[in-house]
Amino acid sequence: MSVTHLPNAHYSDLIASDNNHLIGGDIDWLNSLRKKASEEFTGVGFPSPREEEWRYTNISPIEKSQFALSKQAGSVNSAFLSSVLIEGCHHLVFVDGFYQAELSSIDGLPEGVVVSPISNSLNDYESLVKSLLDSVVETPALGFINFNTALFTDGAVISIEENTTVEQPIQVAFVSSKEGALSISNCRNVILAKASSKATVIETYNSVDDSCYLTNVITEVVVEPNANLTHNRLQAESLKAYHIGGVYSRLEKNAIFNQNNYTFGAVISRAEIHAELGEASDCCLDGLYIAEGHQLIDNHTRLNHLHPHSISNETYKGIMNDRSRGVFQGRIIVAQDAQKTDAKMNNRNLLLSDHAEADTKPQLEIYADDVKCAHGVTVGQLDDAAIFYLRTRGADEQMAKNMLTFAFANEMVERISFNPLRIKVLEQLVKRFPQPGMKLEWL
Amino acid sequence: MAASNENLKNMIGQEYKDGFVTDIESDSFPPGLSEDVIRAISAKKDEPEFLLEWRLEAYRHWLTMKHPEWAFVEFPKIDFQEISYYSAPKSMEDGPKSLDEVDPELISTYNKLGIPLEEQMRLAGVAVDAVFDSVSVATTFKDKLYEAGVIFCSFSEAVKEHPELIKQYLGTVVSQYDNFYAALNAAVFSDGSFVYIPKGVRCPMELSTYFRINAANTGQFERTLIIADEGSHVSYLEGCTAPMRDENQLHAAVVELVILKDAEIKYSTVQNWYPGDENGVGGIYNFVTKRAECREENAKVSWTQVETGSAITWKYPSVVLKGDNSIGEFYSVALTNNYQQADTGTKMIHYGKNTSSTIISKGISAGHGQNTYRGLVKMGRNAENARNYTQCDSLLMGDQCGAHTFPYIETKNPSATLEHEASTSKISEDQLFYCMQRGISAEDAVSMIVNGFCKEVFKELPMEFAVEAQALLGISLEGSVG
């Protein structure tokens, strides 16, 4: 489709201005990568809703807001930080897009495992960063990717050594401070799970207050043969913020990748979760999104089965209340060589109010014949019979609804095996669907 | 399996049966499109002023439109100046008054296609409107239908005899600005069928239109308008064939259905346009806009389509469910073999309360065929208790073909309930083996399995059509088992 959408002058100017606060300004390959991305962005700009991939998500408020670039980290008090950090994890903390060494804690990592911000890695691990950066992300006309590549300020570098298991999950916490209001933070994470390694990574997004800002983040993931990586994403940004995120992964032979995507925050949230599946690899994409008020939560997933015998399982559940909208697009592509693929996708949506909306677009694109592919979608409301049953047991209507909605969402939460993370996600649920007998400290 | 595969391969050579050309003198416009061409078509048809104006508006709008690129089909750019927009058998010029005056060559063409136009020979119970290139050559059983109050005639005739109905309903479902091909059709449409079923009448027989493209380098642009007034019922069938040619020909039709209170239309299509040869040369581009509007309460419409022909099929028979309690149904079997491409599906747009819709789509891909289901289910703000059930299954035969599913689901009402299921699979070795060890040949076994796959759709077709559809599917699929 031809796009008559003009690139936004404000953001093109930002990209063109003298961005000497960026890391790696003295590294040639990085400079040329950034330059290429800037040029592409300047020509195209951010996507318009006339593009098929963005037809349900209009990001013009971002264009109108004219955010500035975040140039330094603001302050975050320790009480807030402790509410964000998950116990039992290694922590990497970024505030407004900048690494905060004094807030982070990484110790007792097995030998050969790298967990470090990009800003500190460009000397010691330059070749690692170079091999991963921009190696997985697809570069279709997604203006946000180019914008990120051109302007990322920092991000996490995680590399798990061969045959190594990292027992403690690694939390990469992105926090937006009061000073971060009305600015954009661009972070870029790269994760490499080397052959036969095992690790869990948790990305969290939080804000100190309810200010308006834009988070534009990309994570690139490579899972080498026989490695097993679990990647969680807990997005609980301020309800006035905008969040554009992406997880782009490549699975090699026999790799296992579990991606769990929990979305609760931001007035407009868009996540791209893409996976490229190698031979006999196993990919699981799970998601839970709960939207209230005027929130728009958009999740786009893509599973690209390129080689034989790979398996994918995808379940996304959404709950929409008030005037919110939930958008889901799940695309499964099975290439001609990807015989014996087994792909399943499921999207279930619950509409709780008269003005909520669900738009969903599950897609199968199949070029191989010996495959099993299925997708299912439902959109509906709570079962009247179930509400009635609970009311006969003495629950009032609101409580009955809360209990049922909680149970609908809890199916996704129960799958989390790491208990401290499970409690963090449950906190979000209990906050939204309070009910007696459901106290956090009992969980 | 190897031996039976060989047998199957040998049978691929089955030719397109209806691919002959009728040698008949025709009166065609030279290729090209301009306001003059539109005026000339309109003049040929002796049309009233309002219709010419309507065509010109459509044309002027069309000039501002861009060719849509979003579909999952690939074809070279069409040069709209290379197409002739009007072609009619010469013998039709004087307007034969009855069947006896129709050129025997034309009658024999339809006989050859198995559509006898002589009424006494016709299976009782089906009235046929035969459209040959740009004009309708004959409509059978007109008088008998007229007694029941049913108007069934060619579009040009309706324009002359019932201009008030045309004026009232034309373009109210698919406007002349609707989309690229609908606007083109509105500008240059030459003929088609018109049906009006008055209040409370149950049409005494099945109505049918048979479309035939004969002339080379022409496009066929027909327009069908069916109006079912309060409490009426009609079952309408549509069939199509074309000669085998190496050039692609464009068929851009528009079908509008208006369904009023308590009325019902059942619209069945068996589309067998020339699909091109095994190398993908030639064939018809079938770009059609079909839409039904359940305008008042308790209206019901059912689309059933069996799409086996055409090099490219690109259409979405849709239903706008405006009236409360109205019902929309869509049953489809789409088959792509060799290099055929199909991007087809439906749109169910729920506005009224308690509206319900069912979508059953079966796609079969073989050879290098690419088969796409694309469908929209939309629940409007006021569609209280609306209900949709969608099932789309794809069957892949061979490792060079593709099957794609692109459903769009938009819900703005919490009381609406919506289910969508899709699956893709192939004929399993186990199923084949089971049939074969019972003494059924591989070919028959495949045909049984495929027919079983399509059964839910075939059972919706009127009897004779169901038989024809099964046979067609058998021919189109022969040899494509791998």
Account of the protein in words:
The complex is a heterodimer of chains A (443) and B (482). Chain A is α/β, with parallel strands linked by helices and 443 residues long. In chain A, 23% of the residues lie in helices and 37% in strands. Chain A has 2 domains: 9-277, no CATH class; 383-443, no CATH class. Chain A has helices at residues 9-16, 28-44, 60-65, 78-84, 118-124, 126-132, 143-151, 384-392, 397-413, 419-432; strands at 68-69, 90-95, 98-99, 114-117, 156-160, 170-176, 183-193, 198-207, 214-223, 228-236, 242-251, 256-263, 268-277, 282-291, 296-305, 311-320, 325-334, 342-351, 357-366, 372-380. In chain A, the strands form 2 sheets. In chain A, strands 1, 4, 5, 7, 9, 11, 13, 15, 17 and 19 form a 10-stranded mixed β-sheet that branches. A 10-stranded mixed β-sheet of chain A has the order 3-2-6-8-10-12-14-16-18-20, with helices on one face. In chain A, a hairpin with a 2-residue loop joins strand 2 and strand 3. Chain B is 24% helix and 34% strand. The chains are: A alpha/beta (443), B alpha/beta (482). Chains A and B meet through strand 19 and strand 20 of A and strand 22, strand 23 and strand 24 of B. Strand 19 of chain A pairs antiparallel with strand 23 (402-411) of chain B, so a sheet runs across the interface.
Topology:
The complex is a heterodimer of chains A (443) and B (482).
Chain A lengths: L8 H8 L11 H17 L15 H6 L2 E2 L8 H7 L5 E6 L2 E2 L14 E4 H7 L1 H7 L10 H9 L4 E5 L9 E7 L6 E11 L4 E10 L6 E10 L4 E9 L5 E10 L4 E8 L4 E10 L4 E10 L4 E10 L5 E10 L4 E10 L7 E10 L5 E10 L5 E9 L3 H9 L4 H17 L5 H14 L11
Helix pairs in contact in A: 2-7, 8-9, 9-10
Chain B lengths: L1 H9 L15 E3 L6 H10 L4 H16 L22 E3 L14 H9 L13 E7 L2 E5 L2 H6 L3 E4 H7 L1 H7 L10 H9 L4 E5 L8 E7 L10 E6 L4 E9 L6 E4 L2 E6 L4 E8 L11 E12 L5 E8 L4 E4 L2 E4 L5 E10 L4 E4 L2 E4 L5 E11 L3 E10 L7 E11 L4 E10 L5 E10 L2 H9 L4 H17 L4 H15 L5
Helix pairs in contact in B: 2-3, 3-8, 6-7, 9-10, 10-11
